[in-house]
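$ ./design --mode recover --in tokens.txt
reading tokens...
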């Protein structure tokens, strides 16, 4: 099946779109080892947003893959993972931000970041900075030690690996090609998105 639409997200940037109930979105790692943050809102009420807490609770796991459902802060299903080449996607990290680069890396100059890239795409829908919450960290490879320490490893995703998600309600979706070097094996690259109509 050919996609109804294609969106190319250059390295260290983002985009936002409307995804209707029943449509599917394929997020493709173009060159491999590239993380992508995905955040979504109910189209008819943007106070309803993807909830990492509800999603982790209802799936009873920290890492999502095929068959798992992403839930909103009102316990409603938002997206279902239909296909996954990688098999491990956390909801642990806030989108990288200028504040994060300053805190964690000692950045002195402005740095491209997922928070601003998400917000830039979402602003057209009236969504503000205070509504940006923890996204699905697509392709991010994270390990957790017995002591609870979180460690970022190079992504497992290879060239053209993808995850496909079906909308369970009408959504506003924002997605990035992450700007943080460490989680992308220190080489930021593009992300492609393909939209498919309900089969």
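writing sequence...
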């Amino acid at each position: 099946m050919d996609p109804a639409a294609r969106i190319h997200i250059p390295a260290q940037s983002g985009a936002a779109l409307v995804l209707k109930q029943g449509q599917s979105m394929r997020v493709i790692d173009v060159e491999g080892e590239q993380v992508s943050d995905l955040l979504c809102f109910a189209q008819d009420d943007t106070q309803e947003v993807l909830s990492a807490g509800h999603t982790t609770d209802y799936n009873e796991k920290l890492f999502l893959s095929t068959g798992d459902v992403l839930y909103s802060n009102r316990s409603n299903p938002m997206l279902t993972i239909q296909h996954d080449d990688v098999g491990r996607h956390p909801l642990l990290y806030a989108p990288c931000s200028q504040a994060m680069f300053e805190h964690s890396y000692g950045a002195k100059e402005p740095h491209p970041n997922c928070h601003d890239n998400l917000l830039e795409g979402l602003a057209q829908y009236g969504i503000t900075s205070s509504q940006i919450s923890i996204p699905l960290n697509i392709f991010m490879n994270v390990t957790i030690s017995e002591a609870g320490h979180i460690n970022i490893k190079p992504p497992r995703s290879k060239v053209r690996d993808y995850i496909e998600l079906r909308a369970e309600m009408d959504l506003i979706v924002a997605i990035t090609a992450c700007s943080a070097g460490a989680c992308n094996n220190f080489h930021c690259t593009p992300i492609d998105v393909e939209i498919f109509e309900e089969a």
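exit 0
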